[in-house]
Amino acid sequence: MSVQPCSDEAAAQWILDQDREWYDLTARGPLGYEQTARLRFIPDPAYVGQRESDAVIPDDIASGPTELWQVAVATSLLRSHTGTPDDCYFLIWEGWPYPEYKSTTAAKVDLRGGVFDSETIVRSYYLFRGSSDLFASTEPSEPGAHQRPPLEKLLPLPSFIWPSDRAWCITKDVDPHFASIGANTRSVDELLSDTRIDVVVDEPTSEPPRYT
Description:
Distance between the termini: 39 Å
Number of domains: 1
Order of helices and strands: EHHEHHEEEHEEEHE
Number of helices: 6
Number of strands: 9
Structural class: alpha+beta
Largest sheet: 9 strands, antiparallel
Strand content: 15-25%
Mean pLDDT: 88
Low-confidence stretches: 141-149
């Protein structure tokens, strides 16, 4: 099942209904999971107030796999922990420079400022539906001279990924150096044991290390 625009915005309503401040929701994901973890794309800051531009990043990480590939590894492990591995939803941030994702048939999902600001839109996304197997999206495509690559080949890193049974959810906001993952303990244990990606246990009510 390739990635396709989804017009049913109700599928994302549970994200909007989360009782969480928007800046925590967009970076840390929905609450209610048995365990949470962080997939770190680069190491955590070495000290409070460190800028990402000042981080010492090992060469194997700096020139290593893309963030999307690392998320694809995570979803490949999480596939066995959902009853709907080929029926997943993706919220794509509208700020990505990929016009293919600004589809008129994809539902526009607006996240507002919360209890004290119900009018201001803080993030807007387009809703898509497809398989949790993201490796096809990480492989380079070779279209002909007058041929556009298929939509899944242009997939930017989604802001939210979840199967239709909501067994887990991966969240990645624009700035953080990590993605947050909510799942059951068995799923997180499997993520922790995979040496291809850097995953650490997270505490959803505590602020994680961040670059300034």
